[in-house]
Specification:
Blueprint lengths: L45 H16 L5 H16 L15 H13 L2 E2 L2 E2 L6 E6 L6 H14 L3 E5 L3 H12 L13 E3 L6 H10 L3 E4 L3 H10 L3 H4 L3 E6 L13 H13 L3 E5 L4 H9 L9 E3 L6 E2 L4 E6 L2 E3 L10 H11 L6 E5 L4 H14 L4 E6 L2 E5 L15 H12 L5 H12 L5 E5 L18 E4 L7 H8 L4 E2 L13 E4 L2 H22 L5 H4 L5 E2 L26 E2 L9 H22 L1
Parallel strand pairs: 3-8, 3-9, 4-6, 4-7, 5-6, 7-8, 11-19, 13-16, 13-17, 14-16, 17-19, 20-21
Antiparallel strand pairs: 1-2, 10-18, 11-12, 14-15
Helix pairs in contact: 2-3, 3-4, 4-5, 6-7, 7-9, 15-16, 16-18
């Protein structure tokens, strides 16, 4: 459910410059004041559909104009759309190359045109977009969707989980401008649709877009909608969000993988944009399929000075030494976790993320254990069944707040379950009800690996416990640790504190998390070199620095899903003696201590 969508026929954009009304043409649009649930499907009359089709056809003709002229026009409209209160955004405010993004989008679309008509049947052009977690990749998707809507090209966006897809839709349709002429095209989430096939056809015919989560049945329905010649003639692009999560199994395709292949075969997208902070499995699959990525078809976000990313993560310290989970420890992690809790919960306004227990009952037990030792701490438990808020048992000295009722807790659970609230909304509630000074611990596992952001307007993560099971891939490890990355704002409560996150994890996982974005950056630089192909960049003959080594000797996690059986065969150079990664250094010292202990035992 959501606000009614405007079903009037699309309007031609004004000819005035951006500061007088914008220059983007879009079909039916969602309200600027859209709620957090995807909009309902409008009831479109036949004349509305006909009007939408005519407008989309007129928009298609723009693509045949001069490339530079069209890039300038689209850039101007896009920057106005991203701006605020009738002011255009400066291109320098973005942490990715918007002009390059618009140029590769327009160039890819122009490549599918011949004699003023769309040429179908060619293999989709591959474009990849990435960067560190929580570092603005949504803006890349937003710019591509907007540009396609402006040019009358339809968009199909696939993401992971219903909650993740809802979050993407809300971010994409949001705008601070009131002018409908610069709005996004209609984006409909299929999770709220009943007559799916008819909905898909109507929305795409009027120039809108379809958003869908990673459910094979829904993706099959989209593929089925392209079963007639009229639908096949519609120019369409495919955006796959969290693209690495769509590769599952090597020896036999899952239903999801079959559905994605059927979607590509039936839609025949002009280009496919794969977006993720963990793109290595995508690169490896493109290599297997003998597909190439042009040097201009790689779009990465840059890490600005306000970004708190992997380089800002430091291991837990105790008595001046690094502390990690011991991979061979059979006594349980609680003693080591207590060391972090003691530091975290002495700090006012701290936010601690705990990704350590798969079973819901264990999460509740750990939250109860924490509150027994630290009664002034608030706790959130996030599972697939919803969210549970455990208020502090006693306020911190000098703080007062009213008790929260059972009805309020139930309403909170229901709003989160119905996707009306995000985790950030719940953290905002904690800040207001229990005051920002109250430490907060968030417990979860699968729901804390992708998509969601764990910040409020004032509170950001500064402590993280990440203890994933052995079956979890390197990509899931990076995504899980990435929940504690964020863009630092002046409104943050602890803005004067040192810009860092204290992490407790396995030593090899710490090194891998640190190396992953460096490896991605080095691959990008190699692919930008003239004549370097993907197969060459990912061959054993190609060497990478020791700082990019995501597979140290003791790292047993797989690249991509374990059943996908991907092999990363590249050469990582050995580190100099004074640059050994901290996790590996800790393991070396532990091995030395054990050898010395065994020698002493023999002497006795």
């Amino acid at each position: 459910s959501g606000k009614e969508m405007n079903t009037d026929p699309p309007r031609t954009p004004p000819k005035s410059p951006p500061d007088e009304g914008g220059m983007a043409t879009t079909p039916t649009t969602a309200s600027r004041d859209a709620s957090k649930t995807p909009p309902t499907v409008p009831r479109l009359r036949k004349k509305d559909v006909e009007a939408g089709c005519e407008q989309a056809s007129r928009n298609n003709c723009k693509i045949d104009r001069d490339e530079n002229e069209l890039v300038d026009e689209v850039l101007s409209g896009m920057l106005y759309f991203l701006g605020d209160k009738k002011q255009s955004m400066s291109i320098n405010q973005l942490n990715f190359d918007l002009e390059k993004t618009m140029r590769v989008t327009i160039r890819s679309l122009k490549a599918a045109r011949a004699d003023g008509e769309w040429v179908r049947g060619k293999d989709a052009i591959e474009i990849v977009a990435g960067g560190s977690t929580q570092n603005g990749k949504t803006m890349i998707k937003k710019s591509v969707v907007w540009a396609c809507g402006y040019l009358g090209v339809r968009v199909i966006l696939i993401s992971t989980t219903k909650r993740g897809t809802t979050s993407v839709v809300v971010k994409l349709i949001s705008s601070n401008q009131d002018n409908d002429a610069v709005a996004m095209p209609s984006l409909i989430s299929l999770s709220c649709s009943r007559r799916v096939t008819n909905t898909i056809k109507k929305i795409l015919k009027i120039g809108g877009g379809i958003c869908c989560h990673d459910a094979a049945a829904r993706i099959e329905q989209i593929a089925k909608a392209f079963d007639d010649d009229e639908m096949r003639e519609i120019p369409t692009v495919l955006i796959v969000d969290e693209a690495d999560a769509f590769y599952r199994r090597y020896f036999r395709d899952t239903r999801l993988e079959k559905a994605m292949k059927a979607l590509n075969e039936s839609v025949k997208p002009i280009f496919r944009l794969s977006v993720s902070a963990t793109l290595i499995p995508v690169f490896l699959h493109l290599k297997q399929e003998k597909k190439e990525i042009g040097p201009d078809s790689i779009i990465f976000t840059e890490c600005r000075t306000n970004y708190v990313g992997p380089d800002s993560f430091v291991p837990l310290q105790h008595n001046g030494k690094d502390v990690f989970f011991d991979p061979d420890d059979s006594e349980g992690p609680e003693k080591t976790m207590n060391l972090l809790y003691e530091q975290a919960f002495q700090k006012k306004g701290s936010l601690t993320l705990v990704i350590a227990y798969r079973i819901m009952e264990r999460m509740h037990e750990e939250a109860a254990r924490v509150q027994k030792s630290f009664p002034h701490v608030a706790a959130l438990i996030i599972t697939c069944k919803g969210i549970t808020l455990k208020p502090p048992l006693t306020p911190m000295p000098g703080l007062k707040f009213d008790p929260i009722t059972d009805d309020e807790l139930q309403q909170l659970h229901d709003k989160f379950k119905q996707q009306e609230w995000t985790v950030s909304d719940v953290i905002e509630l904690v800040d207001k009800r229990f005051q920002i000074e109250t430490p907060l611990a968030v417990f979860g596992y699968f729901m804390m690996i992708r998509s969601d952001s764990f910040v409020s307007s004032k509170r950001v993560p500064d402590f993280l416990i990440c203890k994933l099971g052995a079956g979890m891939s390197i990509e899931k490890l990076v995504q899980a640790c990435g929940r504690a990355t964020y863009q630092r704002q002046s409104s943050n409560y602890n803005i004067k504190d040192q810009k860092r996150v204290t992490i407790l994890t396995y030593p090899q996982d710490y090194d891998t998390f640190q190396a992953y974005p460096r490896f991605m950056a080095e691959i990008e630089r190699k692919l930008r070199q003239p004549g370097v192909k993907l197969a060459e960049a990912l061959s054993p003959a190609t060497s990478y620095t020791h700082r990019a080594n995501i597979k140290p000797e003791v790292q047993t996690r797989s690249v991509g899903q374990r059943l996908d059986a991907l092999q990363l065969n590249v050469n990582f150079r050995s580190p100099p003696q004074n640059e050994v990664p901290r996790g590996r250094k800790w393991l070396n010292e532990r091995r030395t201590r054990r050898i010395e202990d065994e020698a002493r035992a023999v002497r006795r």
